[in-house]
Structure formats: structure tokens, C-alpha cells
Q: What sequence folds into this?
């Protein structure tokens, strides 16, 4: 992720306009749009809703909020949702003008706690709405034509995670070689949050990197119900454990 892309994101979020953001940044509008699209591809989430008249921030998890409420016996009609820009969310919760905010466990949650704001996290996965997160994507043609490449890539990825988990400090230092201004304390806290989300109740006893069938079944069901996923594919057709190394035990 390039720092320039984050700067563009902050500008668009503040101005809620690609035109005004481009003027603020002294960059052509097409350059700002391209950077935001690249950031969205990298994050795997839409950051802004766009139409001819306005630009508004999205919440990647907002589509699944009804599922979270339903599975925990909360009447959705009694929940009032206010859409505000990113900085406004932080102010609203810090000044007690909002009861709760949508945020990531590895960003605003950590920032607010560091500022002394007492908060309680209600993670989706911990409250009955678990979906598969980041994965390695490969073209089916690549799987068929060069399975050894895929197998070695998966093995290297798993080894890197295992090394990072064994020595988190070394992991952060490695990141700082690429991005020297990486904040050590914040990065370590984010790392620990991320590592804690790797395993689900269904996959906790599986070898590193291996998917649990239940997690994919839950993911597809939730996406069909709440995110307008239209597919005839079965959950097991979305993933494979074929290229995950066998457990050492």
C-alpha cells in the first residue's frame, strides 16, 4: 500500500468529492480516481459510493450488520445508523455523541483505546457472523498448469506467518525495512489482533492455512442473504486445501 494512495483517500474522505480532492492535492482528477480504485482493489472493499451527484464513504461491514443484529437478538428497527466521514466517527464516539461505531479491530479500536476512550469490541466473528477473510487467490488455469508453483507459494506464505507468530518483533522490524516510518507499538498491536483472527472455532484444530468447510458454508450463506451474492456454486467449489502442506504432527 503506497502512502500516496492513503493521502488521496484522506483527501477524498474529507472533501467527499473527487474534484475538490484533486484540487486540494494539485493532482488531475483521473489520477485521484485511479489511486482510489487501486486502493480498493488492494483492500478488497469499496471505500466510496459514487454517483453523479455525490460521493459518500461506505462501511465494508455495514452489509452484514443486519445478520449480526439478528443472530444476537437485537431489534434492527431500534438501531439508528448515522453515516459520517471517518474523522467524524472518532469524534462522535469520543464525545459520547454516538453509542457505537463501525470500525476495524485493528484500527479505530486501537486508536481510541490509546487515547483513553473506554470501549468494548463486539467482533462479528465472535458474535455469530464469521466470514472467510484474506486468502490466496489463484486462477484455475494456473492451478492446472503449474500446481508446483502454487504449492511452493502457499508453503512460503505459511512459513512466513509461522515465523512472524514466533517472533512478532522481528516481523515488525522486517516491515520497517520496507517502510521506515512504521510505528512499532501500533504495528505490533495490529499484528496481534490480526493473528488472533486467523483461526476460527471451526478451523482451530486444522493445520496452518487449511480451510474449514463450515467457514465457507457460513460465508456463502451470509453473502447470499445479505450481500446479494448470486451463484449456483457450492461452498466447496470456492476453495481448495489441496496445496496446503500436510501437518508435521
A:
Amino acid at each position: 500500500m503506497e502512502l500516496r494512495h492513503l493521502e488521496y483517500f484522506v483527501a477524498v474522505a474529507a472533501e467527499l468529492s473527487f474534484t475538490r480532492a484533486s484540487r486540494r492535492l494539485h493532482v488531475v482528477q483521473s489520477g485521484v480516481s485511479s489511486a482510489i480504485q487501486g486502493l480498493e482493489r488492494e483492500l478488497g472493499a469499496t471505500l466510496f459510493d459514487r454517483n453523479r451527484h455525490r460521493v459518500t464513504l461506505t462501511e465494508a461491514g455495514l452489509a452484514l450488520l443486519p445478520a449480526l443484529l439478528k443472530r444476537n437478538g437485537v431489534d434492527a428497527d431500534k438501531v439508528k445508523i448515522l453515516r459520517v466521514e471517518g474523522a467524524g466517527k472518532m469524534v462522535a464516539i469520543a464525545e459520547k455523541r454516538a453509542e457505537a461505531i463501525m470500525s476495524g479491530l485493528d484500527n479505530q479500536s486501537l486508536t481510541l483505546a490509546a487515547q483513553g476512550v473506554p470501549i468494548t469490541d463486539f467482533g462479528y466473528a465472535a458474535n455469530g457472523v464469521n466470514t472467510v477473510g484474506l486468502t490466496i487467490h489463484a486462477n484455475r488455469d494456473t492451478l492446472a498448469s503449474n500446481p508446483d508453483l502454487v504449492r511452493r507459494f502457499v508453503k512460503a506464505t505459511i512459513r512466513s506467518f509461522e515465523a512472524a507468530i514466533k517472533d512478532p518483533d522481528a516481523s515488525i522490524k522486517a516491515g520497517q525495512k520496507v517502510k521506515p516510518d512504521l510505528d512499532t507499538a501500533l504495528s505490533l498491536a495490529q499484528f496481534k489482533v490480526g493473528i488472533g483472527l486467523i483461526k476460527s472455532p471451526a478451523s482451530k484444530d486444522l493445520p496452518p492455512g487449511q480451510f474449514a468447510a463450515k467457514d465457507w458454508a457460513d460465508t456463502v450463506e451470509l453473502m447470499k442473504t445479505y450481500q446479494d451474492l448470486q451463484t449456483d456454486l457450492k461452498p466447496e467449489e470456492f476453495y481448495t486445501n489441496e496445496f496446503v502442506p500436510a501437518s508435521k504432527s
The mean pLDDT is 84.
